[in-house]
Fold this protein.
Amino acid sequence: MTIYSTLFYLLAVLILASTAIAVTRRNMVHAVIYLVISFFGSALLFYLFGAPLLAALEVIIYAGAIMILFLFIVMMLRMEGLEDRLFPLKQWLPAVGVCFVYGMVLVMLIVSDTTDAPPMPAAAAAPATFGQFLFQRHWLAIEIVSMLLLIALVGVLRLGRDAGGKTRPESEVAQ
Amino acid sequence: MSNWIAGFIVLMVKIAVVLGALLLSAAYLVWAERKLLGRLQVRLGPNRAGKFGLLQPIADALKMLCKEDIVPSAADRVIFLLAPAVVALTALLMFAVVPFGPPIVLWGREVPQVVSDINVALLYVFALSTLGVYGVALGGWASNSKFALLGGIRGAAQMISYELALGLSLIPVVMMAGSFSLVDIVNAQAEMPYIVFQPVAFAIFVIAAMAESKRIPFDLPEAENELGAGFHTEYSGMRFGLFFIGEYVHMQVLGALTAVFFLGGWRGPLLPGPIWLFIKIILVALIMIWIRGTLPRLRYDQLMALGWKVLIPASLVNILLTGAFLLV
Amino acid sequence: MADLFDGIKAIGTGFSTTFRHLFRRPITEEYPEYKRVLPERSRARIILTRNPDGGERCVACYLCSAVCPVSCISMQSAERPDGHRYARWFRINFGRCIYCGLCEEACPTSAIQLTPDFENCRQDILSLVFEKEDLLVDHCGKDPEYNFYRHAGVATPDGGKGEHIGEDAPVNIKSNLP
Amino acid sequence: MIVPYSQVLVLAGLLFLMGMFCLLSRRNLIMMVLGLEIMLNASAVAFVGAALRWQHLDGQAVAIFIIAVAAAEVSIGLGLIVWIYRRTGTVDAGCIESDACRID
């Protein structure tokens, strides 16, 4: 049990616990906050796994931008206390069923993995090395992803325009 | 082992010194701002507590500590209590990567004059500044008051919009220095500060930084005359004080970052490094106060238009030009 | 392009203006050292004035109390043997007073008056309740000549009771006809 | 030395499980998109762990792409949610499917 593995277990407990709390919250703002903690833990995990750049990006994009966007929408649409019953039976049963099957597959896969993998060594990739690797080996994927982001941008702009046009008046929506 | 312990002690001392200096100068920045703003508006500013009002920050701090800490009954208690801490903490933590001098040799050990030199320091600063948005947005939401909620929403929208311009304006600097580490960026400016090569990036950075720290032409989240005090309408006592400390520490951190990225950091003739950095921070802060005393608050649509239609395209063009220049 | 130039010039003008203000003398009047003399009709601390001959002007008609929007005036009326009314006690709660001046306008005898003395704050809020002896002064205030009982319902060389300009005939107190 | 890779996989698998549970059991559209985010994050954890396990940067590259895809997905998803909310006045998936509030 080295200091690294201790850190890993602590982070794993933090991530799992906060995620578990997040998915069962009725108040969406609380859910978002717990999820931010979870993503923050993931970022620390990435740092532990030797990816400082990814750790920073995880905090900036996941915990920062994406979760703020969620928070923003939740605050703007004002819909706390929407679900009168948190887990109606109609959703609960299939979810449990699917998750059970998934869990079984997971366990079987891990049990069947008999190759006695050694514990992972600790290493760190410098941001410059990683950047060079990324842009030399995966330049096409980078272009595709940037195209995807551009499409997302245009799509959201289109959606926003559309919503501003022929909608019910704001007062009616508020009711 | 003794080496490890010595390193730990040095680190703790550095943290204590930086934290103390930061908080003290935050308090006196408030004094300087009130005094200078007074003179800009042909007033006197605080002059009652002590000579030239120099004890005013202490009096303010005592007053805030003695005040009752009120939590609105319909507020979300835990979040309401934690939000100011988030704002103050993220602002304070940001200073950890700012170098304030060249490495010095103490008792045969080389001690770098920076709390922590991590290789993704620039991204670390951004990560903390995005997390600072939570303090504003959640403080506004948890107050359960319509003014605070509007302030929180405005703050979140404004800060994530200007985060982009802030980040994009720094990419030319990173391209020229070839590193995310602030120590390397300062070292790369040994001959010439980057403001000479990157005046556009400098202008964009300063504007975005002011929007990021909610300074006056961009203080829509707390617009006094339309929202009360915005996201901290419902706060009182030292929790309000924490928001205040966060704002002024943030101002200093942004001054320090401006100095590091564009003005050559701690580099300067004659005087030692920390003093040069301090002079540059104060210079940036004074200019921010001057801008505050001059410009009126932007309207919300003007704010968004400035961010998305002016600053971001300008910084993208700037990146393109810098890249072309570096290649040729 | 011209717009851009104009904009930059406008911003520059603003900044230079505020910069020049740095070197101007502050116009602040520092209060405890320098006390500005307020105009005579400014509305601050309330007093009860006396007639030129030294009698109390207040006839305890309750008009000030009735008109007061914050109900800070209270009194108890009484009658002297000669039929003149006076206030047995008169109380103004300055903790509630908003210095609107309506009591002064309502007063038929010019007894209650507002003075320019604005330094009227206490540590203890209960000491802001002023009794009649605190309110009563030994001068006539703004209206030195006026004496209510000399003017109201009195025959003068110009005519008898009820014959002056703007004066109604005296009420017949023996009849209840309108 | 950190931990065997299989333990990282267990962590990622449990995270994915929670995301899936959230997606399947909640009726609120926003919570469903949150579930998707959890699942994407779980896969990123697995990939970064794999990068360390095989000492190869490909895993980290994939994690970057996952983050980018998540950003695109969440912007479109939340845009659609706002659109739906403006049209129907609700973000309840069950309610939107029913005839009670058909999209006009």
